[in-house]
Amino acid sequence: MIISSIGQGLLWSVLGLGIFMTYRILNFPDMTTEGSFPLGGAVCVTAIINGFSPVVATLLGVLAGMCAGLVTGFLYTKGKIPVILSGILVMSALNSVMLFVMQSPNLSLLNQSNVLNFFTDMNLPPNFDTVFLGLSVVIVIIAILFFFFSTEFGQSYIATGDNENMAKSLGIKTDRMKITGLVLSNGVIALSGALIAQNDGYADVNKGIGVIVIGLSSIIIGEVLYGELTFFERLLAIVIGSIIYQLLILLIIRLGFDTTYLKLFSSIVLAICLLIPQFKEKLRLKTGFESEGEK
């Protein structure tokens, strides 16, 4: 069970890395996540059933997610619709898109090949195929993100999130950066959806409900544990945070709690992680005041 949770944590960390690109770097929440995640799985599973190879099907899922991000980006930057509302509009529309793609609310991969089959010949112990797949994808994604944000374009993207007015004064086209961020972010999120759909063996239109909480939990847990980090270390912290989150969910299940309420437990875990920095700050101030009083 622990190995399975680690594998799941690695796959879900891809979602966290995608959300990080908008939530932390551009400093806005993108609700498209809850639509692009299941969309990636829906397109991927449908493509596999229609004869595409798992790799091509996964890439088609990523492309679908990028298109969703592009629509949100245009609604936000060109339509001047608030980013949260833009994301909600696209998220709602994607529900119908997925039903059109799959022609049903869910679709099974029973007796179909998937990316995990590439590890079949390695004779790995149970659940290690998921770990190897997750680790391989995470390494590639982190390497690409690290390279991207080291470029001049990537630095312009970061500057847009840090201070949009300053970025504009430097000649940076901030709207282009926001659209780019939404496209790339939702592409990575859709990749996570495609991989998890293949690992679970099915796609479902309702799979996106609450996934933004899971992604944010990965980010927040990593930040709470490690504090101030370099950019590369923050990416690694998201992966570690995702694994810890899945292990916490496993612990909750082992303690005998009803799995029907997992989303409630997920929200509680995230709320606690968000409150910890506040408690630390209050404790630090209290300790400081006590020290001053003793003097």
Description:
The longest helix is centred in the C-terminal third of the chain and has 33 residues, at 262-294. The relative contact order is 0.19. This protein has helices at residues 2-25, 33-49, 54-77, 83-102, 128-148, 152-162, 164-169, 174-200, 211-226, 231-254, 262-294, and strands at 106-108, 202-204. The model has no long low-confidence stretch (mean pLDDT 87). It has a two-stranded antiparallel sheet with strand order 1-2. The chain is globular. It is an all-alpha fold. Helix 1 runs parallel beside helix 5 (128-148). The protein is built from 11 helices and 2 strands, in the order ααααβααααβααα.
Give the key terms.
single chain, about 300 residues, mainly alpha, globular, 11 helices
Q: What is the element layout, followed by pairings?
A:
Elements lengths: L1 H24 L7 H17 L4 H24 L5 H20 L3 E3 L19 H21 L3 H11 L1 H6 L4 H27 L1 E3 L6 H16 L4 H24 L7 H33 L1
Antiparallel strand pairs: 1-2
Helix pairs in contact: 1-5, 1-8, 1-9, 1-10, 2-3, 2-4, 2-8, 3-4, 3-8, 9-10, 9-11
Membrane topology: Multi-pass membrane protein
Protein name: ABC transporter permease
Keywords: Cell membrane, Membrane, Transmembrane, Transmembrane helix
